[in-house]
Write a structure and sequence with these properties.
With 118 residues, this protein is mainly alpha-helical. It is 53% helix and 8% strand. The protein has 2 domains: 39 residues, no CATH class; 65 residues, no CATH class. Belongs to the GOLPH3/VPS74 family.
Length: 118
């Protein structure tokens, strides 16, 4: 594959489809067709929420109990997951089960991560 900037939207679509297929193959998601008005859309709902709960717990722990003194030393996979969740506007959903104090600490740490220089 080449990364032609003019065809980026097609490449991102292919990446999304490959990720969805991989998650379906692993049994995390399933594939369903849903009718939205006049169009049939392929959706990928979770087939088992255990994986989601583990992931949410991992994100919560990384910004609370396992928070490093230097955020640059944070695990790169967790860091990427936090950035992706923030960009997708679902990061705050991961913190809804926390107490008010823990929520404030978690959001403070997330803001600290987002303010870092790349």
């Amino acid at each position: 594959e080449c990364w032609n900037p003019l065809k980026l939207k097609y490449q991102l679509r292919n990446v999304r489809e490959r990720l969805a297929k991989s998650l379906v193959d692993k049994g995390i998601c399933s594939t369903e067709k849903q009718n939205f008005f006049l169009f049939d859309m392929t959706t990928h709902p979770l087939s088992d929420s255990v994986h989601k709960v583990k992931l949410v717990k991992k994100v919560q722990d990384s910004v609370l109990s396992r928070w490093p003194n230097d955020p640059r030393r944070m695990d790169k996979r967790i860091l990427a997951l936090i950035y992706l969740a923030h960009a997708s506007d679902v990061l705050e959903n991961a913190f809804t089960s926390l107490s008010d104090d823990d929520y404030e600490v978690a959001m403070k740490h997330v803001r600290e991560l987002l303010d870092l220089d790349p």
